[in-house]
Write a structure and sequence with these properties.
Strand content: under 5%
Structural class: mainly alpha
Shape: elongated
Distance between the termini: 28 Å
Number of domains: 2
Strand order of the largest sheet: 1-2
Number of helices: 12
Radius of gyration: 22 Å
Helix content: 40-55%
Number of strands: 4
Length: 275
């Protein structure tokens, strides 16, 4: 799943940010690190660790520089951000001021929302679909999803056809479409539209083409349905069709990583050092 943090080009002429850069040319990258913590916490700009505790200068030094030697630099940066009004201190917890300026992804910006509404008024069938990820499944595919479309192909050499947790069986074969719809409904309940059924068909077709196991596509749908359900809890989320957005993200996820998310190099290094 991709998380977006924006670098608003208008800040290049914004006095508080100019003061930040004047203090140290590396401060813009440090500022984005602070925003990364705020984005992952998803607490309206509060800068928190994964365990929910407030982020400290030491935490930032370890994360950004892999050492505590720069803790003093981060303390100075935090003090400067507080002085310039870029950060606020809420009872010992840092928070990014004007959070909406930093955290929205491009498709959620007012201009993008206005464009989607304009396409909707014109009757453009691509309305609400992220450019480049539109589903073009045929009516036959949509009908196939209503029944039991074939699951994604398993990796080469595995003739089992994979397993779909929690999916009902028909004549000994799992009904992938029904399982996917049930997983989607766990987080985003409601009747599937034609476009959403087409999106499911597209995920199945794409998964088979790129060699994704059936459970991989199911897990991608679960992950992104949960993510979209979480995002829509917040005001001005800009997501008009939550289930469709979740399926579009799942499709892109399966296309990019057919066998699952690529492990971070740090995790790989840890495994090598701890066999």
């Amino acid at each position: 799943m991709s998380l977006w943090v924006l670098f608003d080009i208008e800040i290049l002429g914004d006095p508080p940010f100019v003061a930040l850069v004047a203090a140290d040319l590396a401060n813009p990258w440090r500022w984005m690190r602070i925003n990364q913590f705020g984005k992952r916490a998803y607490e309206k700009g509060r800068v928190l660790r994964a365990d929910g505790l407030p982020v400290t200068a030491r935490d930032l030094a370890l994360t950004h520089d892999r050492t505590t030697d720069t803790e003093g630099i981060w303390q100075d940066l935090i003090a400067k951000c507080l002085e310039e009004g870029l950060l606020a201190d809420e009872e010992g917890t840092l928070s990014v001021r004007d959070w909406k300026r930093w955290h929205r992804k491009p498709s959620d910006l007012p201009e993008a929302t206005a464009e989607r509404k304009s396409r909707s008024r014109r009757g453009d069938p691509s309305r609400g679909v992220t450019r480049g990820h539109a589903c073009h499944a045929s009516e036959a595919e949509a009908v196939a999803v209503a029944g039991a479309i074939p699951p994604c192909s398993p990796p080469a050499g595995d003739g089992s056809g994979g397993s779909l947790s929690g999916a009902p069986s028909q004549n000994g074969k799992r009904n992938w479409a029904q399982a996917a719809a049930e997983v989607l409904a766990q987080h985003l309940p409601g009747d599937l539209s034609t476009q959403e059924r087409q999106a499911l068909a597209r995920i199945s077709e794409t998964g088979g083409r790129v060699g994704a196991p059936p459970e991989r596509a199911i897990e991608a749908i679960r992950t992104h349905a949960y993510s979209v359900a979480y995002e829509t809890q917040f005001p001005d989320h800009g997501i008009r069709f939550p289930r469709r957005v979740a399926l579009e993200r799942a499709l892109a996820d399966v296309q990019a990583n057919p066998l699952g998310p690529v492990p971070h190099p740090w995790d790989t290094d840890k495994k090598r050092s701890n066999p």
